[in-house]
Protein 1
Amino acid sequence: MVIYDQLERDNKLSEPMKQNFELKTHVEVRAGQQMITTWDHIEKDVERTRKEMNFFSKSCGRKFSAELVSLTKSKAKISERAKNEDYENHRDVLTRILFVFARTNVAVGYAQGMNEIAAVLYYCFHELGFVEDREHVEADTFWCFFRLVLAVGQVEQFKDNFLFGMNTKDHPMRVSLNHYEKLLANIHPRTAAKFKELGVQSDFYAYRWFLLFFTQEFDILDLMRLWDALLCFFHADHKLKFDAFLTSLSLSIIGLIEEDLLKGDLNACMMLLQRHRTSIHLVLDGAEKLVRRLRGVSVEEIFEKTED
């Protein structure tokens, strides 16, 4: 069923959320020199999501509903395909999930990269859940995405539209990256020295790792195994532990490609950092060893030491 209709039916939409959806649908975002609607922005990003997988282009077995047309026709540009095709595909559903999220959470809105996170959740619910529950996949994905983005503190990162605001020392992502860089210097000093020599900053590669939870680093099945470990700490009460495990995973990746990094120039290092193909088993094993190495030291103490 269409997620907005279900939210309204179940009285999960507050009045401010309803007003935001009605009044802010045509809020435009800047992309380059063009002004495009939120729907267009999301639709273009979703079209590029997981292009290596046929799954998202397949029909989801549901016709374009009258509810969907009435929801989007006067408020946002519905895909031209709806005029000629009877069935939605999974990209249509993913677009709608993100669109409703953006319109019901205007303070956060939509930012490029959210599509990558939502796609993993949607695939997991649809392909690995029970067949009889598939009619609820859209709603399940929406609420899981909602909780994930809000609970682990990604709101500030996404709200600042990636690098905007990163220059302030108290920006959440800046703090996380500073912790990572200092632990990198302690655990992989040769690589840290090499990065300093070449001018490789964590913003160039680790920012994506932290913000998108490694969605662009692994294939989707390996990624779900990584998330299975990572999301043990997703609750807001464990935000510091969540960040610490993100850092451990990042340091594990660096350790696995360290020898190649030390041999490379700037271009080779950047290529390796952005296109590494490390084994998920080795990444998780390395992160676990790092956690054991630091066992007995609280997460707060680990991060406090990086302030020295």
Note: Residues 19-35, 73-77 have pLDDT under 50 and may be disordered.
Protein 2
Amino acid sequence: MPARASTAARRSVSTGLREAATGSGFGATPPPSRPRASAGGGAPLAGLARSGDGLWLRGNHDPEPPSGFGGRALAEWRAGPLVFHHEPHPGPAPGEVAGHLHPRATVTTGRRQVSGRVFATDGRRLLLPAFGAYTGGLDVHDPAVRMLFARPPRVFLPGRDSIHAFPWSRLAVPDRLRNGGG
């Protein structure tokens, strides 16, 4: 990638991550059995959305921003070579950044395994994890995730102080997916 395009891509990612939410439950009403941690749970996100020209990517849980969030609701947003969607599109999608599937992975590290939310990419497409309190996740080995990548993706597992990168070969296959299960 030429230096100029690379700079534009970095700027686009930075802008996109700062201004675009993927509609994965930020404003969703929690299930009755799981009350919000605080009455003002959405206040920081609402403040961020009001601080600039916020973009809200329509999702299955949040087709429009919650009342008072402001900004624009879009089905997709393009920034240079990147295209942001809530739900990934089937087939090749160079530059796509999407949520919805909430990728997770279990990584084998010596004698133990660590599981968590991950960013998953094959260098052409990026799936974003969910960080909401009411969202689950889908293992990267699940056919719904795996079929989106032309080659096995690398995963990036956020840690307490850093982000850890792991190749496909270090990921554990969940029992429910062994032997062709789904």
Note: Residues 1-39 have pLDDT under 50 and may be disordered.
Protein 3
Amino acid sequence: MVDGATVEWLKEGRLIAPYTDSGIASAWPDAFETEIMSPLALASDALVEAARQQGFLKGPLAEESADVPGLRSDLLGKCVTISSSNLGYAPGLDVFVIGVEEQELIERTKLTVLRRLLWAPSLLFAPGQAGVWFDPSDLSSMFQDSAGTTPAAVNSPVGKINDKSGNGNHATQATAAARPMLRQDGDGYYYLEFDGTDDALLSSTFTIATPVERISALRQVAYTSGDFIYAGSTSTGGLRLGQIGTSPALNIRSSGVGPSTSDLPVAVNGILTERFDGSSSRIAVNTGSYATGDTGTTTADRLVIGRDAGGTVFSSIRLYGVVMRAGTLTDGQMTGLRCWLAAKAGVTLT
């Protein structure tokens, strides 16, 4: 028997420790709450376990069945790695086992598992969410001509790359000599090579207002102070990224000169994070610290890659992927996007 005083103490609110992930609610409006009675004695340990579980369970999940040899009721409630050519798990994928059905006569077990669906930048774009997503690793999204009739091929020019955000803001280059080249590096990663002389891609026009986040996987092949990697239109100075100052400094600016970073050396792949939001603007490389400053309030009406707004200065870069979206990203969304882009460029994030 437990006396009444002890019962009341056990029901005290201080023994209940809620754990939330702001990224889930933002990315998945239909997310729901769950309560788990933790066997862990300390609330701090329970919070660590809750974070681990949410790390697996957040985002979309698929429920599937898989047969494995042996009687494996011991796998229930565990996160395991299994291989299944029928389910496309070869050479192996982490899944969470939520059901087991042992078949003793044939000594096999039917597992019911939860599998995380792959994260992709498309999750960032709700209907009507302004922005663009260009993915050179997807060869089906690119064409050698600006009309989009000749499929892209490695070591051939790219005259059109489709916007995968769902907004239809495709980028093109009508001048054949000014098209970047599709390349594949020694590790198998695809990128667009801009020569720094005349290569550029221009998206179609669209309306986008600050705050704006832009995250890229890129490499500075060469450095010339005054060259620009991105511009936000063909006539104004909004949402620009330039090689400004002493190598390898990168600066963001609109109507104001914003912050700079020197954390991405020339000839090194990296993940560049830019936020254009007036006095709250910031820039960082990989998972490093942000440099902050004021880029002003000028916005943009497109994304220009490889040159400035006026088409007078160009940059020599490799572009492995870029996402630009209106609104600020949550920490969870930022982590997902950085990791996704890092995997496209062979960048290790720490």
Note: Residues 43-57 form the longest helix (15 residues).
Protein 4
Amino acid sequence: MTQPMRHISFNVTVIRRQPRVDSKRKSRELKQGSALRAAAYQRGTALTNTQSLKRYDFRGKEDVSHCEIMAPLNAPDWVFDPMSLWNKAETAERRKDAQLCRAIIASLPQDLTPEQNIELVKKWVSNNLTIRGMAVDIAFHSLSTPNPHAHMLMPMRRLEGNGFAPHKARELNNRTWVKSLRTTMAQCQTDALRAAGINRFMFAESYRSLNSQLVPTLHLGAACTALAKRGFSTPRSDFNGQARAVNEQLHKYRWSVEDDHALEQLEAELLELEHDLEALPTQTIMMPQTVQELARDADHHARLAMDVDVVPEPLGTGL
């Protein structure tokens, strides 16, 4: 029997140098984006800005499985050294509010081995990014856990000669191009799964755009994940459990439904889940103060580590 379709998580953001207010701490502290900080974070290492001498140290990060820099053929040797690559990338952007780099985060199939996931990402990067003249710093996280994913950083400029091109590759900011990246990543994962003997279809479109009755799950985030590891339940994790159960039953009856009562029961459960989803943002979670602090700290570090502007969700209504 064909196994269920699965949706990939694939996000593209741009890291800027522009100062911003750290609203999570509810202070007027100004923080600046940094490509060096983002690279150090995803690699779980320490990198230093050679101009300001500011050091970004994330050597305590434990979920980094593998790191690698990919570049076009005949790229200079300095490209493959993260300290040199990201210092030169920041120096190339002179504006005080400059865009410094593109950051991509992609979920990976749990059914593949770490080696297979590494190979599929390298193939995708080669076919979509380095072929366009881009250098890509890749870090694989949690490959042996239920949450394997890859972080990819790209400078804003193509490599040209022994340095960067004089102009940014602005066409890579096009939404159509970003959408094509999601589609090709989904296809690459599907091909890798089939090569491993797993008949599963990965897709980047929403269930609604595919006219599917499957119920989408919600992103848990760092705070919910941290709470789940300590045995706490949240509305989002509860909803995801119900959604997976309904999806499993929908898939079971996908091709032939002989039991009308079972079908009616599934439709009723779908309707109930839709009501739960609409009501979810207004639900409040009552937690001990220590757990609130845990969620607040976990969410703060996960969202601000790469200096990407994100509007924080209020604790208790965003979990």
Note: The helical segments are 35-43, 82-92, 114-128, 175-195, 221-229, 235-252, 260-279, 289-304.
